[in-house]
TrEMBL record:
One of its GO terms (molecular function) is manganese ion binding. Mn(2+) 2 binds at residues 96, 99, 225. It comes from the Bacteria. This is Fructose-1,6-bisphosphatase. It comes from Gluconobacter albidus. Substrate binds at residues 99-101, 130, 176-178, 198-200, 222. The keyword Membrane does not apply.
Length: 333
């Protein structure tokens, strides 16, 4: 007979934790969805942060936020270093309570609430700066694309691996002035380009989803979002590389302090950003190709759509939840 006391706690609890994470992202999505289309991104983000922080109180972990809303003096909750959870295995937490605040405020597609967990010390400690990224999906030769290769060479290599033409490839990037050259060279190579106003976590995940409509995600975006994307890509067996980008010496020094003696400007591979056993959950706030948004059939009911993953099993689950806000009837005396 197996003695339960000899089984590491993480092995016992990680399946339940994956489902607990869904409750956390659902709570944040329902709270922020109230602000959809109202043009008030700060209020939407604040509602998501408060709901997510409260939901974490019920999760059985000894958690520390490593990717969060900023430094302790910048954020009232879910700040870097904050301890959350009701006690349990030691975990690092990466959160984006509302990925795509502008998307929510303008009722545009792909606003998500996102959480990832890893064993203590397994997430890259990244300051809130830019990260250069390149992402492709699963079932491709290792190193099929490279951060240091030209976008044209990457597209040709990817098309060859997929046994398709470059003209069939879709590059996704944020619609930013800094990406004008990337976009021009991709189109010159013959590829199509999908531009997003915000939401690069969803775009990175789309490379790994059947019917996601994205073959290659590239360009620069937030480093915290890069770590969250890496957690999802780990679970979905895709490939990702990144590199932190510094605007000044202050950012470089901050990254050096968080790098534990490693070169902060080194090329980052997937396991540099998210290693060990990783759990990931996201819930849609506004509908997009990845997830439907929060639906409110009535004032007392809501329906949410989430994706939850575990790197250990590489299982990806899509969960539709129906929520009731009716007060419970008092039992008969």
């Amino acid at each position: 007979m197996i003695d339960p006391q000899n089984i590491p706690p993480y092995r016992v609890t990680d399946r339940n934790l994956a489902l607990e994470l869904v409750r956390v992202t659902e709570a944040a999505a329902i709270a922020s969805a109230h602000w959809t289309g109202r043009g008030q991104k700060n209020e939407a983000d604040g509602a998501a942060v408060q709901a997510m922080r409260a939901a974490f109180d019920t999760v059985a972990i000894d958690g520390i936020v490593t990717i969060g809303e900023g430094e302790m003096d910048e954020a009232p909750m879910l700040y870097i270093g904050e301890k959350v959870g009701s006690g349990g295995p030691a975990m690092d937490i990466a959160v984006d309570p509302l990925e795509g605040t502008n998307l929510c405020a303008k009722s545009l597609p792909n606003a998500l609430t996102v959480v990832a967990l890893a064993e203590r010390g397994k997430f890259l400690h990244a300051p809130d700066i830019y990260m250069e990224k390149i992402v492709v999906g699963p079932d491709l030769p290792e190193g099929v694309v490279d951060l240091d290769a030209s976008i044209g060479n990457n597209l040709r290599s990817l098309a060859k691996a997929k046994k398709r033409n470059v003209s069939d490839m879709v590059l996704c990037a944020l619609d930013r002035e800094r990406h004008e050259e990337l976009i021009a060279y991709a189109r010159e190579a013959g590829a199509r380009v999908m531009l997003l106003s915000d939401g690069d976590v969803a775009a990175a995940i789309a490379t790994c989803v059947d019917g996601g409509g994205v073959d290659l995600y590239a360009g620069s975006g937030g480093a915290p979002e890069g770590v969250l994307a890496a957690a999802a890509i780990r679970c979905m067996e895709g490939q990702m590389q990144g590199r932190l980008l510094f605007e000044d010496d202050t950012q470089r020094q901050r990254a050096r302090e968080m790098a534990n003696g490693l070169d902060p400007a080194r090329k980052l591979y997937l396991h540099d950003m998210a290693s060990g056993n990783v759990l990931f959950s996201a819930t849609g706030v506004t509908s997009g190709p990845l997830l439907k948004g929060v639906e409110r059939p009535s004032a007392t009911r809501a329906r949410t759509h989430s994706i939850v993953m575990r790197s250990k099993s590489r299982t990806v689950r899509y969960i539709e939840s129906h929520h009731s806000f009716k007060p419970q009837a008092e039992p008969a005396s």
